[in-house]
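Our platform keeps sequence and structure together, in a single record for each protein. Such a record has a labelled line for the sequence and another for the backbone structure tokens. Nothing more is needed to write down the fold, since each code stands for a local backbone conformation. For reference, a complete record is included directly beneath this paragraph:
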Amino acid sequence: MKAIYLWIGLLLACNTLFAEIVPHWISYPSANNTTYGVYHFRKQFSLDTVPDSLWIAISADNRYRLFVNGRSVCFGPAKGDLQTYKYDQVDIQAFLEEGQNVIAVLVFNLGQDKPMSFFSNQTAFFLTPISPQFDYLSTNQVWKVYQNPAYEPITYQEMLFDKRWFYGYYACGPGDRLDVAQYPHGWAMPSFDDQEWPKAEALHFEGSAPWPLMARNIPFMRVGEPIWPQIRQIEGFETLANWPQDQHKLVIPPHTKAKVLLDFEHLSMGYPELDLKGGENSQIRIRYAEALYEKFNLKAHRDSIKGLEMFGVWDELITDGTDFRFIPLWKRCFRYVQLEIQTNDEALHIERYVNRYSGYPYEDLAEFHCDNDTLNQIFEMCRRTLEMCSGETYYDTPFYEQMSYGGDNRPIAALSTYLTTDDRLLREMLRIYPQSANPATGLMTSAYPSRFPFDHGSWSLVWVQTIYDYFQYRADSSFVKTFIEPIEGVLNYYARHMDESTNLLGYLPERNFIDWSIDQGRVPRTSESGECVHSTMMSLCYLQSLQTSIKLYQALGENHKAQRWELIAAKLKAGIKIHCWNEERQLYQDAPDRTLFSQHSNVLAILCGLDSPDAQRLLMQKILEEEFDEYASSYFSYYLFCAMQQTGREGAILDQMGFWYDFIERGHSTVGETGFASHDRSDCHAWSAHPAHFFLASVVGMRPAGLASKEITFVPHLGKLNRVEASLPHPAGRIKVHYQRQGELVKTNITLPTGLVGKLIWEDKTFFLQSGPNHLQITK
């Protein structure tokens, strides 16, 4: 099965496999259903011989899971929006048999509490064979459909707000409440009798259907092998302590109230499977959490369980005594799972509980090892976080939101372009974000795809910067040219908000965000009247977007656009230097009329090159040594480290790993949201995983231009390390690097794939590298 998924994923790398499809959408009778519902569609057919291939196109609103002859094939569609709704192309030949066959499709609409990243018009589904030979399989009124009464949603209100257990936002969809007695057991098998099921209803629209279709342009998600948890705690009954590794059953006696705390040891996500037998009318609640809690909104050490509380979202079911496998409709994220069980007159057998990891199928990720074991742990935590925060989009957090934010994606993009050569997910996130633009302002929403109703000005600016980063990394002119119009829309919006009396940005009405504050708020701080006016940070963020756009336009031959924005950038730069520099502190303050000082404003001033190189180095020293009103979080440290690169302080980046050492000390298996004790919401936030990028870009020293060219430059900064090894993916093959420092001698082994050449710059010495192994010994 694993091989089949990999094969399908590779084929779906291309979105032009077949000609344009003609979908025939169907639904449950009484169409235009926008409320919660779970539906089963079936099509029975007979084959004299199994064909060499049988490609289909398939999609659904909200989601589908495809089965052929009872075997799970795939699930989808990939997230999109109602401008470019995705469909999948799958060859189901490997699942077919001679004689009777059935295509069975589970379709669900999660209603008003569906994940915020889901777009929906109404419950609907289509399946279209690519070859006319199999047109008889197309969705129409011959298909059978059943609305499953066994399911109800556990709403956000029930899960979160009646007993609020954390501060912040949750947007991952409802829990599943399931009455197993009403479930159509065996519905996906050819032998199932669907005679009593109604026929599907064909949907007809005035004009075109409300789902403008686009072929899936990312692979299917990886479906992993079963992951078994450890039992950490049992209440209410006794069992074998080594379950489930030896696959012994858990047997909960009749009339027993029990709890079983399971620990997967690392944060995970996917589709957990609970296999049940017997125990008619037992009630089971399956609760998911990143960690246990000392008290409301305060997580304990991630390995700790004693005397702690279990808070988290949940699913629940009532059993009917039959053998049954429960799998949530939508993916769950967790380290800990607690089974809360109340049996009735019959003992309940839990045959097994496992997770099947589901995430983006990255392959051949970069590797990094050094003589500091904690830094090795940090690299692995960051790499795991990238994987956990990559699905059909990038995720801000897989537990709370599963949404792709324009600002989060800049450090994620930098990380992914160094760790992998698979840019399909990154390109899709860059592509779809401008589709959220407000026609009146040109600004994008905070996160997309999502149903967020508000523009988020600062994230639109950072999206512009990410486009330039991608160009630096991949030199992909044809792709980035497609974004000129939305880039212009963002830049023009801020040009209209320039205050001519100061040459700073004036009043900005959006929910502007640069970083979380150390006290749970956000920066930039607003004025006493609650307004964002003459913000140094926002002016600098705009200036940085102008500067990156100018470089991009110059590289693309759009010189007239570059010249226009150079004039505005010069005015803005002058305005910031005149009105925001504090002579007494020798720092940039956060607004001309407010003597608040942040690392953020001063880091951005360096990145925008406001001062001479010598002045930037002095400012960098002050950033690292002085006290401020606001400090960079683990997220904004990405920009701090970029400023350290720019000022020749790359060798000290490894000395700034305090947040990540703290994550390890608190038992994290992935990196958290801010590193601030006052804001300890998400245990998995890929915007904080950027140290893995800097380990490769600064410590190993592989420069961005080498990611796309045939000439690689290495400028290593080992800091206090004596040994560094790395393996980096490149379109030409793996690049292997080994540095070994022995007193005054440095032994260097760099292996470049065929067709690549390069150079190594070690302090003031340059060494030229050829394809294949390069063995160098460097002395001071």
